[in-house]
Amino acid sequence: xxxxxxxxxxxxxxxxxxxxxxxxxxxxxxxxxxxxxxxxxxxxxxxxxxxxxxxxxxxxxxxxxxxxxxxxxxxxxxxxxxxxxxxxxxxxxxxxxxxxxxxxxxxxxxxxxxxxxxxxxx
Length: 122
What we know:
By secondary structure, this protein is of the alpha+beta class. It contains four helices and four strands; from the N terminus they run H-H-H-H-E-E-E-E. It has one domain (32-121).
């Protein structure tokens, strides 16, 4: 009787049993955070960071330093000249680190398939 009076309720029902279909709920994943010591360790060696080198061609050192601190730009050892962008949530937890390589002359990003193979992986 309910379904006769409420035809909209038929959507999503299993035709064989006339019961609502179970909805698959995504499993909650345990959150893992990256230790802040990695961020502090990466905040160095800017003379080897191609992105910072490129920024330095346009802006004074004081402005570049301020932006490095504000956006937490680090230097990665993944490829020679790579920088690290830290993804930090509103509770100041580091969720992820994105290593990106830039051309120091043009400031354009070098994609993964264009990047040199690290010495450790050869």
